[in-house]
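Table S4 entry, TRAP transporter large permease subunit.
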Amino acid sequence: MEFIATNYAPIMFAGLICFLLLGFPVAFSLGAAGLTFGFLGIELGVFPSSVMAWLPQRLIGIMANDTLLAVPFFTLMGLILERSGMAEDLLDTVGQVFGPIRGGLALAVIFVGALLAATTGVVAASVISMGLISLPIMLRYGYDRRLASGVIAASGTLAQIIPPSLVLILMADQLGKSVGDMYKGAFIPGFMLMGLYVLWVVILAIFKPKMVPALPVEARIYREANGNSGYISLAVVMGISTIVAIFLANHMADLHTWWQGKEVTEVATDEKIVTAMCGGTFIAFVLASFNRIFKLGLLSRLAERVTFVLIPPLLLIFLVLGTIFLGIATPTEGGAMGAMAALIMGFARKRLNMSLLKQALASTTKLASFVMFIMIGATTFSLVFQAADGPKWVEHLLTSLPGGQVGFLIVVNIMIFFLAFFLDYFELSFIVVPLLGPVAEKMGIDLIWFGVLLAVNMQTSFMHPPFGFALFFLRSVAPEKQYVDRVTHKVIEPVTTMQIYKGAVPFVLIQLVMVGVLIAFPGIVTGALDKPVVVDMNKVGDEMLNQLNDTGGGYGADNPFGAPEGGEEGSAAPAPGAQQPATPDTPDAPPAPDAGAYGSDDPAKALMDSLGTAPASK
């Protein structure tokens, strides 16, 4: 028994693993392990029985957590957008833009995946939408099945890291950090990961062009009556929008200065990107609207189509991320506005009815309940684990690793990578992250950077063969049997499960490369955060003393306490009955009392004593 009591924390953790291996749902495994080892620990005298009395208050705290309200809001927004046909329009339009070049359809899937990630934040909705729409087109025109499967699954998982990501909300909650800061830190890494995907497709287009053929001429539907492609006017509109965006980005500090009425010298990078992008998009929308209203004929069909299709998702990006980054709204408020805007867009496009709305609400309720039950189980487990000094055991285990911070980060990321084979990001966020966060903080690691790093690593949980959820989502919509294509009337071979697995492997390696890049260059995350305000307390104390003591040593004109009644400003009036203080010209003046001229109850003296500064001599 003594051995069990001494090693209670590692035994408890091993017990949780046993519950999970037996096949119980994660939420119930966590709760069962917590309650079982809680009552057993009380019987063995490991901790007092009062530990279990804290549990109801902890559970009430979960339900009172405002931050977690963002989870159902963003989920509802993503599901409504997926059912309103926005993904279909984006894939159709962006595919026409990039189609004429080799790998163009794959590039379109990546860019649309990034846009869906920045508006929905739901992996399942992105993967299923792109699998239903893009996969048949890519198979129709001869794309390699492995690449087509891998690029769709990987692009859908961008919703894990590009804000507004659900995993970032959970990560911020578990690490005790702001969701807005987590979003700011993940913004640039998310689009860098998208850039690595693009680079991989470009490499294949150069060295293995047969894997990524271009879209044939007959499949390019947005052509002019005279046969022109319409790219020139599209390039002009994009050029004007880019010039406006660059101008806004370079003069963002000046705009803040004008708006706030005080000088602003630095603006966060993510804020520049979002605001500049929205400004450039607004100019393109104005040009396209004038061209359509007044029938000027200056823009091609392709240019108009691209402009009007890209406006809704970019508007949502500004409404959600822009308001969060600008400090106008909290993530919860941004999610609520995004859900309302998605509802309005869905009904305005006449693609959303009450049946689809009920489906979206039901799916949102299921996911929110899933998160709540996991949090209840995780809270029960962590309460008992902390009472058994589990965090100290984890800390001693990880701080003794060789290599300091780098060694800790490497071991933690290897552990997360292998756990992701069996657990998804919800389970990892609630089981592992609370144990690692305090250790990382004690080692001097920035928790925002640490959270983004783990989020990128957890992204692989969706791509791991054979248990990756993104692969399951794609398998559910990929063709399992031969079928006749409705456009070309050719027989299309099915996509096998092994082809999906093989296609995912290169993108898992790319995600691991991104993890290494973030470890080597933490400034990618921390550089996007607001600079911390450093307050010099010594300087503050000196300024307060200067206000309290003028050059004459009395109550100056700037003294917040003012001149005492009966005395003149700049001199201290004696209390009734008190001895008149001696002047330097009086040789036999008695020494000043220890309490000083202020008196023992003087608030100014008490303030100076708390600052550790003696009052000026009278």
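The two ends are 70 Å apart (CA to CA).
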